[in-house]
Amino acid sequence: MLTQQECDFLHSRMQGTIIETLGIRFIPTDDEYAVAEMPISPQTRQYLGVLHGGASLTLAETIAGVGSLHLINYDETFAVCGTEVNASHVAMSATEGKVFGKARMIYAGKSTHVWNVDIVGEDGTMISAERVTNRIIRRK
After folding, report:
1. For the chain, what percent of residues have pLDDT higher than 70?
2. 61 is catalytic
3. Domains of the chain (ranges plus CATH)?
4. 14-40 pLDDT, tens per residue?
5. Among the options 6, 32, 37, 61, which is catalytic?
6. Is the pTM of this model over 0.85?
7. By C-alpha distance, which of 21, 37, 29, 32 is closest to 101?
């Protein structure tokens, strides 16, 4: 879904945001998925040393938001706003390494997009299954 050029553009736009703070990086793919990685680090861990559920939610909302931006061709007359995120954290993560989020569009309407996002560890273990709903709003 995302080209290297899009990923580079997104990384430049995300400087100074929570996305940069958490170390989220977008990965180019040539299929229908939007993909990003995030390190398991002091910024993303909870007190047991594993990935914090809130960091997973942030990763999921970020990937789904970028997927929606891609679908509207980064048209600056529109804003993409997350309106709902829900998650089932199904396994604890490793205490180091990375996790990967893979977002798949399940509904693309004119003003609403719905995404399924799977968060997996480097070994492929499912950590969290999430659903994100985005609203596409015309800017004034």
Report:
1. 100
2. yes
3. 4-138 (3.10.129.10)
4. 999 999 999 999 999 999 999 999 999
5. 61
6. yes
7. 37
